[in-house]
Design brief:
With about 260 residues, this protein is an alpha/beta fold. The chain has helices at about 20-30, 40-55, 70-80, 100-125, 150-170, 190-200, 205-215, 225-235, and strands spanning about 10-15, 35-40, 60-65, 85, 135-140, 175-185, 245-250. It has two domains: about 10-185 and about 225-250, NAD(P)-binding Rossmann-like Domain (Rossmann fold, 3-Layer(aba) Sandwich), CATH 3.40.50; about 185-220. The chain has a seven-stranded parallel beta sheet, with helices on both faces. Helix 1 links the parallel strand 1 and strand 2. The longest helix is centred in the middle third of the chain and has 26 residues, at about 100-125. The protein starts with 9 loop residues before the first strand and ends in a 7-residue tail after the last strand.
């Protein structure tokens, strides 16, 4: 029977206080890895750390703004010898291309693009001297195409894939792999906003959600944080040792490339 055993390895997860980042952190703990968490939400970080320690592995955390390179590097130093870096932190701003404010553009680029760049550069500098390690960044199926209502979010996710590929080429001669995960549709708070603006006359929010899923996803169901965490675990495990520079869609078939 094949299983993923990361016993004794050190994983660092950003955006780990809640949501997808927390699901990824818990998945690593369940596989036996020690986990270091990074986020700005200290109280939620403490709660997540305690939950992870209850699984019998070590867990620490850093208050980290991923858009600040020095903070990112300090987090990795605090974690010790890093075998796995899963960069999950990011934001989505939904606003039409001609209506979005400049400060919103600056913020989404700072967190999503600079954050990913920091993860790749700091991660490579940490792993290359040890001649081993794996980095996973979180992009999105949004990085595969444009969209007038979320233009700058799509821009950042396309940039994330490009940065990942450059990092993969940089790390490859030193035994370091770098890949990306591209989630499809997970029902987060931003989706409530989208549903309120896309539902048809007389249609409830739930009816709009069900219709949207049927229309967009061939498998007919949305993705869960668990779906994404499973794929992240695989891509950063020994089973994926010969995979680098790839962006894997986990989206029920809504993007096929």
């Amino acid at each position: 029977m094949v299983s993923i055993d990361l016993t004794g390895r050190q994983a660092v997860v950003t955006g780990a206080a809640r949501g997808l980042g927390k699901a990824v952190a818990l998945k690593y703990a369940q596989a036996g890895a020690h986990v270091w968490l990074g986020d700005l939400r200290e109280e939620e970080l403490k709660e997540t750390a305690e939950e992870i320690r209850s699984l019998g592995v070590k867990c620490g955390y850093s208050i980290c703004d991923v858009s600040d390179y020095d903070q990112f590097e300090a987090m990795l130093e605090a974690a010790g010898d890093v075998d796995i870096l899963a960069h999950v932190a990011g934001i989505m701003i939904s606003s039409p291309m001609l209506e979005i404010k400049q400060e919103e553009i600056d913020r989404i680029i700072r967190i999503n693009v600079n954050g990913t760049d920091n993860a790749c550069r700091a991660g490579l500098r940490k792993m290359i001297p040890r001649k081993k390690g794996t980095i996973l960044i979180t992009s999105s199926v949004a990085g595969r195409h444009g969209h007038p209502g979320h233009a700058h979010y799509h821009l950042t996710k396309a940039a994330d894939i490009s940065i990942m590929q450059s990092a993969a080429l940089t790390g490859a001669p030193h035994g370091v792999t770098v890949n990306a995960i591209c989630p499809g549709i997970i029902r987060t708070a931003i989706w409530e906003h989208i549903l309120d603006h896309t539902r048809k006359e007389g249609e409830t929010r739930e009816e709009c959600w069900e219709r949207s899923i049927r229309e967009m996803i061939p498998l007919g169901r949305p993705q869960s944080a668990e779906d994404i965490a499973d794929a992240v675990l695989f891509l950063t495990s020994p089973l994926a040792a010969n995979i680098t520079g790839q962006a894997l869609n986990v989206c029920g078939g809504m993007e096929m490339n």
